[in-house]
Inverse folding.
C-alpha cells in the first residue's frame, strides 16, 4: 500500500469527486456508491474526519455535566469560582481518556478463568468513549439541593454523592460478572427499550432548553430571584419568565432565549436538513461536524447584536 492509498484509500469506493458531488433527492443515482464497506480499514483522511466529528459530538457531553454540577453544588450565582469549574472539567476529560483507553484495549483480568470458569475482561474492546452522562444530573441536582437545605455545605453534599456513586459502581461490577441469561431476566428487552426511549425523550427536552443559550445562568437565576433582581432581562424586575444576564462574569452576553441564540441554533439544524436532502455520500457521513462548523462560522461572522 502506497502513501496515497494509506491517506485517501483505494478502489472505486473512494472516488472523492463522486463522493463529494451534491445529490438531488428527486433524481436517482445511476451508480450506487460503495463507501467504506463493512470491516474495511478506513484511510487516514476519513479516520481524521470521522474522529473530529465524534470529538465535536462528545466533548459537549463530557464537559457539561461536571460544569453544571459545579454550578449548583459548590459554586453559586454569579459563579465566581472559575478555578473550581476548570478543575471539574479537566478531571472529567482526563478520567474519560484513561477509561476509554482501558475500554478499547479490553484488558483481561488475571486468573479469571480459574475462578469463574471463563475469561473476564475490563473493557469491551469496542471503539466507544467512556465518560460522564446527562442521565444522572436530575438525581444529583435534587439530592444536592435537599442536603444543602438540611444544613450541609455544597462540598459536603458533593462528597456524599461521590461516595454514593462509588458504592453503586460496585453493584454494576457485580452485574457484569453475571451470566447473560440472568442479566436478560433482570433487564428484559421491554424494560431496556423503555429506559433507553425515556432517556432519549428527556435529552430531547434538554437539547431544546440549551438551545436558548446560557441555560445554567438562567436556571440559577430562576432559583435565586433575590440575588438577580437587577440582572434579569435588560435591568428589569423579576417577572414570571425571567431572562437573566451574566455579563458580570463575561459568560452570557444576552438574555436566555434571545433571538440571536435561537437563530444560531436554527442555522445548524437547517444546515443539517440541507445536507440530508442535497448532500453527497461523503457529506452525509460527516454531517455533524459540517453542521457544527457552519454554526461556528455563523457565530464568527456575526457580532453581539446578531448583525
Amino acid at each position: 500500500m502506497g502513501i496515497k492509498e494509506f491517506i485517501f484509500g483505494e478502489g472505486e469506493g473512494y472516488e472523492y469527486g463522486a463522493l463529494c458531488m451534491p445529490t438531488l433527492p428527486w433524481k436517482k443515482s445511476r451508480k450506487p456508491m460503495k463507501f467504506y464497506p463493512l470491516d474495511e480499514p478506513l484511510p487516514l483522511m476519513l479516520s481524521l474526519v470521522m474522529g473530529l466529528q465524534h470529538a465535536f459530538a462528545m466533548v459537549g457531553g463530557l464537559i457539561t455535566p461536571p460544569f453544571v454540577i459545579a454550578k449548583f453544588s459548590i459554586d453559586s450565582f454569579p459563579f465566581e469560582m472559575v478555578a473550581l469549574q476548570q478543575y471539574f472539567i479537566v478531571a472529567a476529560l482526563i478520567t474519560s481518556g484513561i477509561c476509554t483507553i482501558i475500554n478499547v484495549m479490553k484488558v483481561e483480568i488475571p486468573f479469571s478463568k480459574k475462578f469463574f470458569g471463563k475469561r473476564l475482561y475490563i473493557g469491551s474492546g469496542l471503539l466507544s468513549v467512556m465518560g460522564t452522562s446527562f442521565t444522572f444530573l436530575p438525581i444529583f441536582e435534587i439530592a444536592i439541593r435537599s442536603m444543602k437545605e438540611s444544613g450541609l455545605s455544597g462540598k459536603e453534599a458533593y462528597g456524599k454523592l461521590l461516595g454514593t456513586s462509588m458504592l453503586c459502581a460496585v453493584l454494576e461490577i457485580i452485574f457484569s460478572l453475571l451470566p447473560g441469561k440472568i442479566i436478560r431476566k433482570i433487564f428484559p428487552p421491554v424494560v431496556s427499550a423503555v429506559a433507553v426511549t425515556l432517556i432519549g425523550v428527556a435529552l430531547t427536552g434538554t437539547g431544546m432548553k440549551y438551545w436558548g443559550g446560557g441555560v445554567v445562568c438562567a436556571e440559577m437565576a430562576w432559583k435565586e430571584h433575590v440575588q438577580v433582581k437587577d440582572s434579569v432581562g435588560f435591568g428589569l424586575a423579576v417577572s414570571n419568565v425571567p431572562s437573566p444576564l451574566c455579563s458580570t462574569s463575561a459568560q452570557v452576553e444576552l438574555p436566555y432565549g434571545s433571538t440571536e441564540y435561537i437563530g444560531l441554533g436554527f442555522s445548524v439544524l437547517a444546515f443539517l436538513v440541507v445536507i440530508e436532502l442535497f448532500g453527497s455520500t461523503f457529506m452525509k457521513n460527516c454531517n455533524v461536524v459540517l453542521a457544527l462548523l457552519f454554526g461556528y462560522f455563523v457565530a464568527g461572522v456575526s457580532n453581539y447584536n446578531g448583525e
About this structure: Residues 34 and 46 are 14 Å apart (CA to CA). Confidence is low (pLDDT under 50) at residues 226-242.
